[in-house]
Design goal:
Elements: H1 3-29, H2 36-42, H3 47-51, H4 57-80, H5 87-104, H6 106-116, H7 126-152, H8 161-185, H9 192-207, H10 211-214
């Protein structure tokens, strides 16, 4: 391994070290109360060193969200790319993929949805913001492809596939955010998986063609 490659690898390892420390701090203190100094202390680095890798707490948090967005794309792509499965199987596979995404990192997923609807995005570097946008669009395009297949196969009503992907994404994010909000107002345990299943079932039923619509 050359000097250039070694330095690149060391830099990436340091970035990962900082991100792991940041996640621990965010879990302990919450995003708003966490500071760069807290994260630097947890990572056993000086704040100045941390700023060499991330220009702000917002950018650091957004980088954590990127990991979730990449995981979403991996799961969705796996479901959609299965050429031997029909629309119904893909819809079920997508439901299971969304459950896996939530289980992967509930905290960061929840805050990622907050991030995407906040002014924090305006503070991010153009490169980071572009990567977030590209990954978000890619996931939606993949889901739209599933709906396009369903329309073409005559399994669901003919509606704009991208609009359907937007609705499904809004359904997913809304359930995740509401489940988090419920923790503040109720001591009842979460029923998130069942909520996902019911929501996807109702959504899927609403898209199915009726016998009248299938007739010539």
């Amino acid at each position: 391994m050359g000097i250039k490659e070694r330095k690149k690898r060391e830099r990436e390892m340091r970035r990962q070290q900082i991100m792991v420390a940041a996640k621990r701090v965010f879990i302990q203190k919450g995003y708003e109360k966490s500071t760069v100094e807290d994260i630097a202390r947890e990572a056993e680095l000086s704040p100045g060193t941390l700023y060499l890798y991330f220009k702000s707490k917002d950018e650091l948090y957004a980088s954590l969200c990127l990991r979730v967005l990449r995981f979403i794309n991996v799961k969705v792509d796996h479901v959609i790319s299965e050429e031997t499965t029909g629309y119904e199987e893909k819809q079920l596979g997508l439901l299971n993929a969304m459950k896996d995404v939530y289980a992967y990192d509930p905290l960061i997923l929840n805050n990622m949805f907050h991030l995407q609807s906040s002014d924090t995005l305006k503070t991010l570097s153009p490169d980071l913001l572009e990567e977030i946008n590209v990954l978000s669009r890619k996931a939606l395009q993949s889901m739209a492809g599933m709906f396009r297949q369903g329309v073409k196969a005559g399994r669901i009503i003919d509606r704009n596939p991208l609009a359907l992907a937007d609705i499904l994404w809004a359904l997913f994010s809304g359930i995740v955010l509401w489940e988090e909000s419920k923790k503040m107002i109720s001591a009842d345990r979460s029923h998130l998986e069942k909520t996902f299943e019911v929501a996807f079932d109702i959504f899927g039923r609403g898209l199915r063609k009726t016998a009248h619509e299938n007739s010539p």
